[in-house]
Amino acid sequence: MAQILKIDDALAGALALLKAGEIVAIPTETVYGLAGDATNGEAVARIFEAKGRPRFNPLIAHVAGMAMARRIAVFDPLSTKLAEAFWPGPLTLVLPLAPGADIHPLVTAGLDTIALRMPQGFGATLIGRLGRPLAAPSANSSGRITATTAEAVAADLGDRIPLIVDGGPTPVGLESTIVKVDGQSLRLLRPGGIAAEVIEAVARRSLLREPGAGVEAPGMLASHYAPAAAVRVGATDIRPGEAFLAFGAVPPEMADAAVAVLNLSPSGDLREAASNLFSHLKALDQRGAATIAVAPIPARGLGEAINDRLNRAAAPREVTTGRHQAS
Ligand code: TXA
Ligand code: MG
Q: Which of 103, 107, 261, 289 is disulfide-compatible with 243, CB 3.0–4.6 A?
């Protein structure tokens, strides 16, 4: 089983493992990441192996500063502006891979672009000390609920990795927002921890949402973030045997009908809802209900990313993964 160390005691041990090509689960401000040296193919292969992740799905490379970022990717003026405004933070930029960049091709799955992010906190310190970028997908088995606590990482991946660094619950609770500059336009590849409107204000243009040609965010498979239970979104009633994931005030008849209730944000605050999303989904799943009914969530601000994750959790699954029967 993985050793779990608090962040204050973990730096030396995490560094030693990463230098040896091992992988380590670390907290970031968004979600927990499963980190390995992005220049080391064996380390990156270990990440895919531990997650059971399809090889074609590229990873985000995490950097500690602009100098490191510029050795890896070619920055256009708009991407530079966004990096200056939002790094370190929950924004990932997809950029052309720099010629001669020391990044193992498994990280990009052979693409000529790379997803880059500068995280806050422990991750930044670790990358700075290592002096190399870290490839880090979210620290969960492929397709399952994203981990926002060290305990959730341990329950999912604990028997497959040597170390989990415990920084407490991650403050944002949703993965980073992924954008890509495409000529004059800016495309939203994945809604996430920074609301699209906030990015649009800095970029002074609107984010395009329609999918473009070719591989974009191939991780955005229809079914993703899936609990064992089925998920029913936009629920305004409770059907027999359902658990209820509420938002805002809970109608008493819904509370009474549900086998279990958790509230993403009793006051209707989207930031609070984002930070509770994955842990509440997981907790309701553990109550054993066949279906989790989810209250309607407003589409504005972080609601876009919350609805994106919920719709994927609700999507039909090709394989039966638990109590839920594939349809
Ligand atoms: O907040 C986050 O972004 C977390 C923390 C750990 O940093 N990481 C994360 O990584 O969510 P992951 O691997 O679960 O999601 C990365 C997404 C995937 O959907 C992947 O397909 C996409 O980024 N991606 C990676 N490289 C890409 C590229 N070159 N072009 C388009 N999409 C890319
Ligand atoms: Mg993920």
A: 289
